[in-house]
Design brief:
By secondary structure, the chain is an alpha+beta fold. The chain has a domain of 121 residues: Aminopeptidase, CATH 3.40.630.30. It is 27% helix and 30% strand. The chain contains five helices and seven strands, in the order E-H-H-H-E-E-E-H-E-H-E-E. It has a seven-stranded mixed sheet, with helices on both faces. The longest helix has 15 residues. The termini are far apart.
Length: 181
């Protein structure tokens, strides 16, 4: 998949260990996330996240990406293709810089990503958010994700698994509903 097509407005590229400092800076600006998903980020935890793979996946399916406006990192996306099956993409993490939140950027980036995934044959997108995090829940529900009924319990928190079909209702033709008066 051509990752540069994940956004039509912003530059998208793979992040590497040389980018850990700027990723850490972006993460540190989002304390609410780490309040629900401890511990606070470190260079070591970011390096681990850059390489972490779910069971049964391959390195070529993992994209730890930076989204840039000019030379400024504005979002981080951990995207795993073909997980948990071949027609599903999994978002391991998506985080927008704190100064760019609540302005529609995250929603726009997710919409563009979903469009790109659909074009590339991915019918579904899955992710997990930490139960109890109202900001994460509201964001993902607003973007068309629904609960699957699955949860993963860790030592520190519970992860609620969400999914959405990449076929948006907005792409379907509008059919007016006849009202009886």
């Amino acid at each position: 998949m051509d990752i540069t097509k994940l956004s039509t407005k912003y530059k998208v590229c793979r992040l590497t260990e040389k980018d850990i400092d700027i990723v850490l800076e972006l993460c540190m600006g989002n304390p609410l996330f780490y309040q629900y998903c401890p511990p606070a980020p470190t260079k070591e935890s970011i390096a681990h996240d850059m390489a972490a793979l779910p069971p049964g996946t391959k390195n070529e399916d993992k994209y730890y990406l930076g989204i840039y406006e000019e030379d400024k990192l504005i979002a981080v996306l951990d995207l795993i293709l073909n997980y948990p099956n071949e027609n599903t993409a999994f978002i391991g993490c998506f985080m927008v810089s704190s100064e760019r939140q609540k302005k529609g950027l995250g929603t726009m980036l997710i919409k563009e990503m979903i469009d790109c995934l659909l074009i590339n044959g991915y019918a579904f997108t899955k992710l997990g958010y930490v139960k109890g995090n109202p900001q994460a829940k509201a964001f993902w529900f607003k973007n068309g994700f629904v609960e699957t009924g699955l949860e993963t319990i860790t030592e520190d928190y519970t992860i609620v698994i969400l999914q959405r079909s990449n076929e948006s209702k907005a792409r379907q033709p509008f059919v007016p509903v006849r009202q009886n008066n």
